[in-house]
């Protein structure tokens, strides 16, 4: 039987005590759960204290899964990584030997540009793959540290994909294609450029001059925003100078106040020395960041299908491609802890995606078709990784979105409509029984139905005197998912 608990001080009604949680000592009872989105009402000042008060646009937290694309001239040699030029200039022995064995004497990095033809690039086929992967947004490298842009930069004459190589606006082509499929589009942009002479002069002056920031960085970023209206700006290459040199707070204040994407855009945390994991709409903290525990701020795990490189490598081995089981674990644990998963691929110089990468993305997409209910638009639950069975991770669905703190655990004013338990390994006992711990006390508070997503029929379950929950699973050969599975708990 349901009963109403009126919470007059909050102005909410909570249905069923099994949906009203107040068991975490870090919960702030005064938090505003369903405050309106107020970014458009505020004029942000160009300082971190004020910029950090911006609410995260809800679309980003709902999306959970994105595709990252590292594409540039480094895919032409297709060797070592996207840092090929810097390693070569730095005297890396393997790269020097590779160049001596593969290209004629006097060959320069600039000579790769005409060889980057992207003749087989079909933006619609890319978009179809990304949709079928289950991703909700796409982030393309508009410019990596090499300085070569994939759009017709007005400040990169002759060093962009329209003036040479493909003779195409790759940013524009992909932006149009993915938006036609209903996905959000964003751009990665490196603040610095390894060998740009204007930047090197500023660096030589210990960044007391800002000629590069004013004449190259700002114009490029404003062109990207005004021409392509990205929903994500993924900044990088910030670590050599403070944010004052990059004029980061001025840029973000313009982005949030006056740009054509001010209400939708999200940015990461790489805006100068010391800004990582401190400022931005979401945090990256470091490459392949996955802390394995709930974070106080929205974050993102940028990971690669190629375990050693972000850019395409012609000599990649199968053992160096992330297995689907590990990819699913990364996605599940990331979302459970309040993060998004941004999954990177590196296309070839011909403009294709290696079949092994496509296979991994389609495998993820097939899994999400069955289990995505517990991923998309989910919220962290009271527990993330089960304390008894570390192969089990949790998420939940709430009726109200927490604009003030998207990664917060449910409070006593939340109405939790479902709890999801993802398990990465199928039980090996004869009974096909999964044993978990952290949900037991909540199951004991009311009547619950448990189903395996993709199968539908309610499962038999019971709690034990030792505080465990036993869930009796169907025969594995009758189950649709192959690599990871999701239990849905709903109060009845």
Automatic annotation (TrEMBL):
What's the protein name?
A: alpha-L-fucosidase
Ranges for domain Glycoside hydrolase family 29 N-terminal come to 39-373
Gene3D superfamilies listed in its UniProt record: Glycosidases (3.20.20.80), Golgi alpha-mannosidase II (2.60.40.1180)
Give the family from UniProt.
Belongs to the glycosyl hydrolase 29 family.
Class of enzymatic activity (EC top level): hydrolase
**Keyword Signal carried by entry:** yes
Query: In what residue span(s) does the Alpha-L-fucosidase C-terminal domain sit?
Result: 384-490
Q: Does the keyword Signal apply?
A: yes
Q: Where is the signal peptide?
A: 1-20
EC nos:
3.2.1.51
User: Superkingdom of this entry's organism?
Assistant: Eukaryota
Keywords attached to this entry:
Glycosidase, Hydrolase, Signal
Relate the protein's function as given in its record.
Alpha-L-fucosidase is responsible for hydrolyzing the alpha-1,6-linked fucose joined to the reducing-end N-acetylglucosamine of the carbohydrate moieties of glycoproteins.
